[in-house]
Amino acid sequence: MKNVFTPRFGTALIAASALLLTACGSSAETAASAAPTTAETAASACAPESLQTLTSGKLAIATGEPAYFPWVIDDAPESGEGFEAAVAYAVATQLGFAKEDVSWVRTTFDGAITPGVKDFDFNLQQFSITEERKAAVDFSSAYYSAPQAIVSYAGSPIEGLTTIEELKGAKLGAGVGTTSLDAISAVFGSEPQAFNDNAAAVAALKNGQIDGIVVDLPTAFYLSGVEVEGGIIVGQLPSTGDNGDFGLLLTKDSPITSCVSQAVDAIRASGELDEITAKWLSSDAGAPVLQ
């Protein structure tokens, strides 16, 4: 049989093959350029129109009733003034929400940490992240790590005491359900007195029922400077392994927990969170760590 593979036929076959390969390569490149990256997919999933918030395109944020300095200034979180109000709006902006798309809800501390459906998308009330609470609610990445401190007054039985040993006989109190209450037992080995809130604890301190109140350090600066006449900070408690990392609180298994955590991580990485902290939270000067 005669060989039909002529030079002319071979040249045509090579040209056709090259054309086919070029077309395939072009299609592959086009498909690759059209395919979204992992980062783009994640960003799209966390865009306002994709987030499964209580109201589509809106963000409901909760705080206490009332909300106190330095967390919220003049009990007006919508102003964005105060540490947690500023953090809330920074997270909202990172998620793509305009200020006018943010609304505020008021809750009690205890009500927020109980299981069940919430009337907010996330809540800021100095909620320390604990394993026990994580069984009932979700938390974002931490936005602040707060040491505990003892507030008292000039002339009190514990003024001038500088060691854990010296303070072991002191009558100390804290708010019910707080990590401050747990810290008293962990550090001093004593039974703390529990109060419904800081206002009740301050009243007890003024009446001489207790020697000191244990709260997070920023709150200690406020109580000692504003609420307690002649107020002093006796000192900071050493870390107990749970130093009060504050997280944004969400409904258990909330569909937006991951996106909210990403937003917190982003404002930390950009340095914005440090700027907010420096602006609104007092320095720890004058609050030595108890030895």
Produce a short descriptive summary.
The protein has 11 helices and 10 strands. The protein is an alpha/beta fold and 291 residues long. Helix 3 (83-95) links the parallel strand 1 (59-63) and strand 2 (102-106).
Brief descriptors of the model:
about 290 residues; alpha/beta; D-Maltodextrin-Binding Protein, domain 2; 2 domains
How would you describe this structure to a colleague?
This protein has 291 residues and is of the alpha/beta class. The protein folds into 2 domains: 139 residues, D-Maltodextrin-Binding Protein, domain 2; 89 residues, Periplasmic binding protein-like II (D-Maltodextrin-Binding Protein, domain 2). 39% of the residues lie in helices and 18% in strands. The protein contains 11 helices and 10 strands. It has a 5-stranded mixed beta sheet. The chain has a 3-stranded parallel beta sheet with strand order 2-1-3, with helices on one face. Helix 3 packs across helix 10. The longest helix is centred in the N-terminal third of the chain and has 28 residues. It is elongated. The termini are far apart.
